[in-house]
Amino acid sequence: MVRRTPRSTPLYSSAASDVYKRQYQNVDDTKIYLRLIESYVVNEYDGEKAAAEDYSVRLMNKIGVATMGDPYINSAGYECYPTLAFVSGNALLYYNVLTPSKDYAVEHGVGATIWGNYAVQPEEGAATFGTKLNETSTFTINAPKGAEAALYTQVLNFNAERIDSVKTVDLGDGTVDHVFNITRSSNETYRVSMEGMRTEAGFVGNVSGDRLEVNFDASRSPKELRTSGDAFSESSLLLNINERNKLELDIGEQYKVRAYRAAWQIIHTITDNIMVEPDFHYHVVSGEDIISIETMDGGNAGDNWAWVTAKKEGVAIVEVSYDALDVNDAGKGMWMTATSGFYGATDPIRTGVLAVSYTHLRAHETGRNLVCRLLLEKKKKKKAEREEYRAVNRRGY
């Protein structure tokens, strides 16, 4: 699949990115360097080093996630995961998330470690990410059987990495304990979802103790609106496309749509930017045979990302909305949050609507020819409609 910015979408630019370019790119920024990166865990217990199956690695930057190679024992004597990473300019910033397997986490009481803002430079030799997994304590979410529970920790600004439970315990009373190994900090959020119920989410730092009990109330609809008139409860929606919300894609081409709750995000503090987001939905109003949509979770959210793929010529219209969300603040201060912790679903008249179109170029037809043909076809259609209108009036209908 070809994945690129669509023709109708301007490339992202900001003052921050411009500063980054000035700091980390040299005069000749056309060169790209490949450098070997070795990522490994340095924890040892009874003289035994961690094996590759004891942990996993996700190496990433703002562009994407690297594909790791097969593990081997490096010169330091540790089993590591290698990858060839590219470096442009004087350096490129990488983030590395090393996560223990469930068995290793339970046996040694450790959790994931995030190595952030590591500047990889275009030098000879391997760059090494030798990291010690964090010692942790347990945090338990008790939820009804059938519910899904997860924690999230911030990796990049406005981006979070999911933390799954290391074990689940069925208590036999219709509820399940989801046990997590974490190093508790202000970066962590939780999310508990269940089919047909309003999602419960919040900030781990606002929970007293190491146990959270979540109960769903069937009377609290995920489609409930908030009509307080509060500016920060404004239930509109924003998409990362362009001012017209229109994509022009070739057949087989993809675009990654990002949906945001607008105009205000649900965050812990104005400086931390730790976000909690609602569950999003994508409804193809017309053109189901024109495109396909594959959704995914990005951070503490439900389906806020969606790969849109053009399948054939035509136009598709997609409506994007989101559900209501209950955010626990336990009476704790949060930046401009709803005091009750309730955030309503999208206002029906303020949903996001996007159009995806593809018009096939005929043999030997240029883009200019295409525009002329479409204008001519539009003119002929209008002429036919006028003639039909006149004919109906002459018949007296």
Task: Describe what you observe in this structure.
This protein has three helices and 32 strands. It is mainly beta. A six-stranded mixed beta sheet has the order 15-14-18-19-30-31, with no helix packed on it. Strands 1, 21, 23, 27 and 28 form a five-stranded mixed beta sheet that branches. The model is unreliable at 1-27 (pLDDT under 50).
| Overall geometry | globular
Number of helices: 3
- The helix/strand class is mainly beta
**What is Rg?**
26 Å
Strand order of the largest sheet: 15-14-18-19-30-31
The percentage of residues in β strands lies in 35-45%
Topology:
Elements: E1 2-3, H1 15-24, E2 32-41, E3 44-45, E4 48-49, E5 55-60, E6 72-73, E7 79-88, E8 92-100, H2 102-108, E9 110-111, E10 113-120, E11 127-131, E12 134-135, E13 137-144, E14 148-156, E15 159-163, E16 167-170, E17 175-182, E18 188-193, E19 199-203, E20 211-213, E21 236-239, E22 246-248, E23 253-262, E24 266-267, E25 275-276, E26 280-286, E27 291-296, E28 305-310, E29 314-322, E30 325-328, E31 342-343, E32 352-358, H3 367-395
Parallel strand pairs: 1-23, 2-11, 13-20, 19-30, 22-32
Antiparallel strand pairs: 2-7, 3-4, 5-8, 6-7, 8-10, 9-12, 13-17, 14-15, 14-18, 16-17, 18-19, 21-23, 23-28, 24-25, 26-29, 27-28, 29-32, 30-31
Provide key terms for this protein.
6-stranded mixed beta sheet, 5-stranded mixed beta sheet, 32 strands
What's this model, at a glance?
With 397 residues, the protein is mostly beta strands. It is built from 3 helices and 32 strands. The longest helix is centred in the last third of the chain and has 29 residues, at 367-395.
